[in-house]
Task: structure prediction
Amino acid sequence: METAQFVESVAGHRDDPGHPTATDDKLRALLVAMEMCDSLCEEISRDTDSPTLAALFASAVERASQRMELAQIRAAGTAQRTLIHELPPETLVALRNVADDPRDYVLGHSRLPDDPRTAPTGRTEYRNIAEALQRMLRISYFEARDRLHAAWSLLPRTDANGIPQGPRFPVLAGQLDSGSARVKEVAAAARKLDRLRPGIEARPDARDLARRVEEQVARSVAEDTPRETNKLFDAIADRLDAADDPPTPAEVREKTGIFVTRRTRHFTYLHACMLNDDAEVFMSHFAQSDNPRTKAETAGRWPMPQPFREPVPAPASAPTPPPTALPNLRRGSSRIPRPAPPKPSRRCRASTSATRSRTASTPRARARTG
Result:
Protein backbone atom coordinates (compact mmCIF):
# COMPACT_ATOMS: atom_id res chain seq x y z
CA MET A 1 0.00 0.00 0.00
CA GLU A 2 1.25 3.45 -0.89
CA THR A 3 1.67 6.09 1.77
CA ALA A 4 -1.08 8.28 0.32
CA GLN A 5 -3.53 5.34 0.28
CA PHE A 6 -2.73 4.52 3.89
CA VAL A 7 -3.27 8.14 4.95
CA GLU A 8 -6.62 8.18 3.15
CA SER A 9 -7.63 4.92 4.83
CA VAL A 10 -6.94 6.49 8.22
CA ALA A 11 -8.11 10.08 7.72
CA GLY A 12 -10.84 9.45 5.15
CA HIS A 13 -11.15 10.17 1.42
CA ARG A 14 -11.37 13.82 0.39
CA ASP A 15 -13.92 15.03 -2.16
CA ASP A 16 -11.31 16.98 -4.09
CA PRO A 17 -8.82 14.47 -5.56
CA GLY A 18 -6.38 17.25 -6.45
CA HIS A 19 -6.24 18.57 -2.91
CA PRO A 20 -2.93 17.70 -1.26
CA THR A 21 -2.98 15.56 1.86
CA ALA A 22 -2.90 17.72 4.97
CA THR A 23 -0.05 17.35 7.46
CA ASP A 24 -2.64 16.84 10.18
CA ASP A 25 -3.89 13.71 8.38
CA LYS A 26 -0.35 12.42 7.95
CA LEU A 27 0.28 12.84 11.66
CA ARG A 28 -2.87 10.82 12.41
CA ALA A 29 -1.63 8.10 10.07
CA LEU A 30 1.78 8.12 11.77
CA LEU A 31 0.20 7.55 15.19
CA VAL A 32 -1.84 4.65 13.79
CA ALA A 33 1.22 3.14 12.09
CA MET A 34 3.24 3.29 15.32
CA GLU A 35 0.42 1.58 17.21
CA MET A 36 0.23 -1.10 14.52
CA CYS A 37 4.01 -1.56 14.64
CA ASP A 38 3.94 -2.15 18.41
CA SER A 39 1.10 -4.65 18.03
CA LEU A 40 2.83 -6.52 15.20
CA CYS A 41 6.13 -6.76 17.09
CA GLU A 42 4.35 -8.19 20.12
CA GLU A 43 2.46 -10.78 18.06
CA ILE A 44 5.52 -11.86 16.05
CA SER A 45 7.61 -12.21 19.21
CA ARG A 46 4.91 -14.33 20.85
CA ASP A 47 4.00 -16.60 17.92
CA THR A 48 7.36 -17.18 16.17
CA ASP A 49 9.11 -20.55 16.64
CA SER A 50 11.22 -20.52 13.48
CA PRO A 51 14.84 -19.34 13.82
CA THR A 52 14.75 -18.07 10.24
CA LEU A 53 11.78 -15.83 10.93
CA ALA A 54 13.32 -14.74 14.26
CA ALA A 55 16.52 -13.64 12.51
CA LEU A 56 14.57 -11.64 9.92
CA PHE A 57 12.43 -10.14 12.70
CA ALA A 58 15.54 -8.99 14.60
CA SER A 59 17.03 -7.46 11.43
CA ALA A 60 13.81 -5.64 10.57
CA VAL A 61 13.44 -4.23 14.08
CA GLU A 62 17.08 -3.08 14.13
CA ARG A 63 16.69 -1.30 10.82
CA ALA A 64 13.47 0.31 12.02
CA SER A 65 15.29 1.44 15.16
CA GLN A 66 17.94 3.18 13.05
CA ARG A 67 15.28 4.89 10.95
CA MET A 68 13.52 6.07 14.11
CA GLU A 69 16.78 7.55 15.38
CA LEU A 70 16.96 9.54 12.16
CA ALA A 71 13.31 10.52 12.65
CA GLN A 72 14.21 11.87 16.11
CA ILE A 73 16.80 14.15 14.53
CA ARG A 74 14.30 15.32 11.92
CA ALA A 75 11.75 16.02 14.64
CA ALA A 76 14.32 18.07 16.55
CA GLY A 77 15.14 20.05 13.41
CA THR A 78 11.44 20.73 12.83
CA ALA A 79 11.07 21.87 16.44
CA GLN A 80 14.03 24.23 15.95
CA ARG A 81 12.61 25.66 12.75
CA THR A 82 9.10 26.24 14.14
CA LEU A 83 10.18 27.54 17.59
CA ILE A 84 8.08 25.21 19.74
CA HIS A 85 9.42 26.75 22.95
CA GLU A 86 7.21 29.80 22.28
CA LEU A 87 3.95 27.83 22.56
CA PRO A 88 1.64 28.98 25.39
CA PRO A 89 1.22 26.71 28.45
CA GLU A 90 -2.38 25.73 27.66
CA THR A 91 -1.32 24.47 24.23
CA LEU A 92 1.47 22.39 25.75
CA VAL A 93 -0.96 20.81 28.20
CA ALA A 94 -3.38 19.90 25.38
CA LEU A 95 -0.57 18.39 23.29
CA ARG A 96 0.62 16.33 26.24
CA ASN A 97 -2.88 14.90 26.69
CA VAL A 98 -3.11 13.99 23.00
CA ALA A 99 0.30 12.32 23.08
CA ASP A 100 -0.68 10.23 26.11
CA ASP A 101 -4.00 9.10 24.58
CA PRO A 102 -4.27 9.86 20.82
CA ARG A 103 -7.44 7.78 20.10
CA ASP A 104 -9.88 10.69 19.99
CA TYR A 105 -7.49 12.71 17.84
CA VAL A 106 -6.93 9.81 15.40
CA LEU A 107 -10.69 9.22 15.04
CA GLY A 108 -11.32 12.92 14.46
CA HIS A 109 -13.30 13.45 17.66
CA SER A 110 -10.90 16.14 18.85
CA ARG A 111 -8.63 18.64 17.19
CA LEU A 112 -5.36 20.26 18.08
CA PRO A 113 -5.17 23.82 19.45
CA ASP A 114 -4.62 26.60 16.93
CA ASP A 115 -1.14 27.97 16.40
CA PRO A 116 -0.40 31.32 18.08
CA ARG A 117 -0.88 34.20 15.67
CA THR A 118 1.65 36.52 17.31
CA ALA A 119 4.97 36.15 19.01
CA PRO A 120 4.88 35.82 22.80
CA THR A 121 5.32 39.06 24.70
CA GLY A 122 6.09 37.77 28.19
CA ARG A 123 8.15 35.00 29.61
CA THR A 124 7.82 31.72 27.71
CA GLU A 125 7.31 28.32 29.29
CA TYR A 126 10.80 27.16 28.19
CA ARG A 127 13.95 29.20 27.74
CA ASN A 128 15.08 27.54 24.49
CA ILE A 129 14.45 24.61 22.16
CA ALA A 130 16.75 22.26 24.07
CA GLU A 131 14.89 22.78 27.32
CA ALA A 132 11.55 22.34 25.55
CA LEU A 133 12.63 18.99 24.10
CA GLN A 134 14.07 17.92 27.44
CA ARG A 135 10.86 18.64 29.37
CA MET A 136 8.38 17.52 26.73
CA LEU A 137 10.13 14.30 25.70
CA ARG A 138 11.49 13.44 29.18
CA ILE A 139 15.07 13.13 27.98
CA SER A 140 18.31 14.61 29.28
CA TYR A 141 19.41 18.08 28.30
CA PHE A 142 22.55 16.70 26.63
CA GLU A 143 20.49 14.31 24.51
CA ALA A 144 18.27 17.18 23.35
CA ARG A 145 21.33 19.31 22.59
CA ASP A 146 22.94 16.51 20.56
CA ARG A 147 19.79 15.99 18.50
CA LEU A 148 19.62 19.68 17.66
CA HIS A 149 23.27 19.74 16.65
CA ALA A 150 22.81 16.64 14.47
CA ALA A 151 19.83 18.25 12.73
CA TRP A 152 21.83 21.43 12.13
CA SER A 153 24.84 19.54 10.75
CA LEU A 154 23.42 16.53 8.89
CA LEU A 155 20.06 17.65 7.44
CA PRO A 156 19.28 20.08 4.61
CA ARG A 157 18.52 23.55 5.90
CA THR A 158 17.90 27.14 4.87
CA ASP A 159 20.04 30.16 5.60
CA ALA A 160 18.91 33.46 7.13
CA ASN A 161 17.59 34.60 3.73
CA GLY A 162 15.48 31.47 3.21
CA ILE A 163 17.76 29.99 0.55
CA PRO A 164 17.91 26.16 0.73
CA GLN A 165 21.31 24.72 1.54
CA GLY A 166 22.69 21.23 1.82
CA PRO A 167 24.01 19.55 4.96
CA ARG A 168 27.14 20.97 6.53
CA PHE A 169 28.76 17.52 6.37
CA PRO A 170 27.45 15.95 3.14
CA VAL A 171 29.52 12.75 3.36
CA LEU A 172 28.25 11.92 6.83
CA ALA A 173 24.71 12.89 5.82
CA GLY A 174 24.93 10.43 2.93
CA GLN A 175 25.67 7.66 5.41
CA LEU A 176 22.44 8.48 7.24
CA ASP A 177 20.38 8.27 4.05
CA SER A 178 21.96 4.96 3.00
CA GLY A 179 21.87 3.43 6.47
CA SER A 180 25.51 2.36 6.30
CA ALA A 181 26.30 3.70 9.79
CA ARG A 182 24.49 4.18 13.07
CA VAL A 183 22.85 7.55 13.59
CA LYS A 184 24.38 8.21 17.01
CA GLU A 185 27.89 7.42 15.80
CA VAL A 186 27.49 9.71 12.79
CA ALA A 187 26.10 12.48 15.01
CA ALA A 188 29.03 12.11 17.44
CA ALA A 189 31.47 12.33 14.51
CA ALA A 190 29.77 15.54 13.34
CA ARG A 191 30.20 17.10 16.79
CA LYS A 192 33.90 16.22 16.87
CA LEU A 193 34.41 17.56 13.37
CA ASP A 194 32.92 20.86 14.52
CA ARG A 195 35.54 21.02 17.27
CA LEU A 196 38.27 20.54 14.66
CA ARG A 197 36.83 23.12 12.27
CA PRO A 198 38.67 26.20 13.71
CA GLY A 199 42.03 24.44 13.40
CA ILE A 200 41.21 23.31 9.85
CA GLU A 201 40.07 26.77 8.75
CA ALA A 202 43.38 28.24 9.94
CA ARG A 203 45.27 26.16 7.34
CA PRO A 204 45.88 27.60 3.85
CA ASP A 205 44.22 24.57 2.19
CA ALA A 206 41.20 24.64 4.50
CA ARG A 207 38.55 23.59 1.96
CA ASP A 208 40.46 20.61 0.60
CA LEU A 209 41.64 19.57 4.08
CA ALA A 210 38.09 19.67 5.47
CA ARG A 211 36.86 17.44 2.64
CA ARG A 212 39.67 14.90 3.12
CA VAL A 213 39.21 14.81 6.90
CA GLU A 214 35.45 14.28 6.58
CA GLU A 215 35.92 11.44 4.08
CA GLN A 216 38.47 9.75 6.32
CA VAL A 217 36.23 10.08 9.37
CA ALA A 218 33.18 8.82 7.48
CA ARG A 219 35.12 5.76 6.32
CA SER A 220 36.19 5.04 9.90
CA VAL A 221 32.63 5.45 11.24
CA ALA A 222 31.27 2.97 8.68
CA GLU A 223 34.04 0.36 8.93
CA ASP A 224 35.81 0.66 12.29
CA THR A 225 34.74 0.59 15.92
CA PRO A 226 34.01 3.79 17.86
CA ARG A 227 37.29 3.32 19.73
CA GLU A 228 39.28 3.37 16.50
CA THR A 229 37.36 6.42 15.33
CA ASN A 230 38.26 8.25 18.54
CA LYS A 231 41.92 7.38 17.97
CA LEU A 232 41.64 8.87 14.49
CA PHE A 233 40.19 12.10 15.88
CA ASP A 234 42.99 12.31 18.45
CA ALA A 235 45.61 11.84 15.74
CA ILE A 236 44.05 14.55 13.57
CA ALA A 237 43.83 16.95 16.52
CA ASP A 238 47.49 16.32 17.42
CA ARG A 239 48.49 16.95 13.82
CA LEU A 240 46.63 20.26 13.78
CA ASP A 241 48.03 21.32 17.16
CA ALA A 242 51.58 20.57 16.01
CA ALA A 243 51.48 23.47 13.55
CA ASP A 244 53.95 26.28 14.23
CA ASP A 245 51.37 29.02 13.67
CA PRO A 246 49.64 30.33 16.83
CA PRO A 247 45.96 29.42 17.24
CA THR A 248 43.43 31.77 15.74
CA PRO A 249 40.92 33.62 17.94
CA ALA A 250 38.15 31.37 16.62
CA GLU A 251 40.12 28.28 17.62
CA VAL A 252 40.74 29.72 21.09
CA ARG A 253 37.03 30.47 21.55
CA GLU A 254 36.09 26.98 20.39
CA LYS A 255 38.54 24.99 22.51
CA THR A 256 39.11 26.92 25.74
CA GLY A 257 36.76 26.83 28.69
CA ILE A 258 35.47 24.57 31.46
CA PHE A 259 32.96 22.00 30.29
CA VAL A 260 30.75 19.64 32.29
CA THR A 261 31.36 16.14 30.95
CA ARG A 262 29.34 14.14 33.46
CA ARG A 263 27.17 14.77 36.48
CA THR A 264 25.94 12.21 38.99
CA ARG A 265 24.10 12.46 42.27
CA HIS A 266 27.20 13.28 44.30
CA PHE A 267 29.94 14.18 41.76
CA THR A 268 30.45 16.58 38.86
CA TYR A 269 33.13 15.85 36.25
CA LEU A 270 34.71 18.84 34.52
CA HIS A 271 37.01 19.19 31.51
CA ALA A 272 39.19 22.29 31.39
CA CYS A 273 41.11 23.60 28.38
CA MET A 274 43.20 26.77 28.31
CA LEU A 275 46.31 28.28 26.75
CA ASN A 276 49.68 27.19 28.08
CA ASP A 277 50.41 30.65 29.49
CA ASP A 278 47.17 30.58 31.46
CA ALA A 279 47.80 27.03 32.63
CA GLU A 280 51.07 28.09 34.31
CA VAL A 281 49.05 29.70 37.10
CA PHE A 282 47.39 26.38 37.90
CA MET A 283 50.63 24.44 37.53
CA SER A 284 52.37 26.78 39.98
CA HIS A 285 49.54 26.38 42.48
CA PHE A 286 49.68 22.58 42.16
CA ALA A 287 53.46 22.61 42.69
CA GLN A 288 53.14 24.71 45.84
CA SER A 289 50.42 22.46 47.16
CA ASP A 290 52.63 19.38 46.66
CA ASN A 291 55.73 20.97 48.25
CA PRO A 292 56.09 19.77 51.89
CA ARG A 293 57.91 23.00 52.85
CA THR A 294 55.00 25.31 52.04
CA LYS A 295 52.00 26.20 54.15
CA ALA A 296 49.69 25.25 51.31
CA GLU A 297 50.88 21.64 51.41
CA THR A 298 50.63 21.52 55.22
CA ALA A 299 47.10 22.87 55.09
CA GLY A 300 46.26 20.32 52.44
CA ARG A 301 47.23 17.50 54.78
CA TRP A 302 44.88 18.61 57.56
CA PRO A 303 41.85 16.37 57.92
CA MET A 304 38.81 17.61 56.11
CA PRO A 305 35.89 18.58 58.35
CA GLN A 306 33.24 15.92 58.32
CA PRO A 307 29.66 16.95 57.56
CA PHE A 308 27.28 17.01 60.50
CA ARG A 309 25.17 13.91 60.79
CA GLU A 310 22.34 13.45 63.22
CA PRO A 311 22.92 10.62 65.72
CA VAL A 312 21.10 7.45 64.85
CA PRO A 313 18.84 6.36 67.76
CA ALA A 314 19.47 2.90 69.16
CA PRO A 315 16.84 0.26 68.41
CA ALA A 316 14.20 -0.30 71.06
CA SER A 317 15.18 -3.95 71.56
CA ALA A 318 18.84 -3.19 72.34
CA PRO A 319 19.67 -3.55 76.07
CA THR A 320 20.76 -0.39 77.88
CA PRO A 321 24.35 -0.71 79.20
CA PRO A 322 24.76 -0.25 82.99
CA PRO A 323 26.25 3.05 84.21
CA THR A 324 29.94 3.17 84.99
CA ALA A 325 30.64 2.54 88.71
CA LEU A 326 32.46 5.41 90.43
CA PRO A 327 34.48 5.19 93.70
CA ASN A 328 32.45 6.03 96.84
CA LEU A 329 34.30 9.00 98.33
CA ARG A 330 33.67 10.26 101.81
CA ARG A 331 32.34 13.78 102.10
CA GLY A 332 35.12 16.30 102.44
CA SER A 333 37.83 13.89 101.29
CA SER A 334 39.62 14.07 97.96
CA ARG A 335 41.59 10.84 98.37
CA ILE A 336 40.53 7.82 96.38
CA PRO A 337 40.69 4.60 98.52
CA ARG A 338 43.23 2.10 97.37
CA PRO A 339 41.99 -1.34 96.41
CA ALA A 340 42.56 -4.17 98.96
CA PRO A 341 45.59 -6.39 98.26
CA PRO A 342 44.82 -9.82 96.91
CA LYS A 343 44.85 -12.75 99.37
CA PRO A 344 47.91 -15.01 99.06
CA SER A 345 47.47 -18.57 97.95
CA ARG A 346 48.37 -21.69 100.04
CA ARG A 347 51.79 -21.96 98.49
CA CYS A 348 52.52 -18.32 99.16
CA ARG A 349 51.39 -18.78 102.82
CA ALA A 350 53.68 -21.81 103.33
CA SER A 351 56.69 -20.01 101.88
CA THR A 352 55.96 -17.00 104.09
CA SER A 353 55.81 -19.15 107.26
CA ALA A 354 59.10 -20.85 106.40
CA THR A 355 60.75 -17.50 105.82
CA ARG A 356 59.58 -16.24 109.19
CA SER A 357 60.90 -19.35 110.97
CA ARG A 358 64.31 -19.01 109.40
CA THR A 359 64.41 -15.34 110.29
CA ALA A 360 63.57 -16.06 113.93
CA SER A 361 66.47 -18.55 114.23
CA THR A 362 69.16 -16.04 113.30
CA PRO A 363 71.41 -14.50 116.08
CA ARG A 364 70.06 -11.03 115.48
CA ALA A 365 66.52 -12.22 115.78
CA ARG A 366 67.34 -14.16 119.04
CA ALA A 367 69.00 -11.09 120.45
CA ARG A 368 65.92 -9.01 119.79
CA THR A 369 63.65 -11.56 121.45
CA GLY A 370 66.04 -12.06 124.42
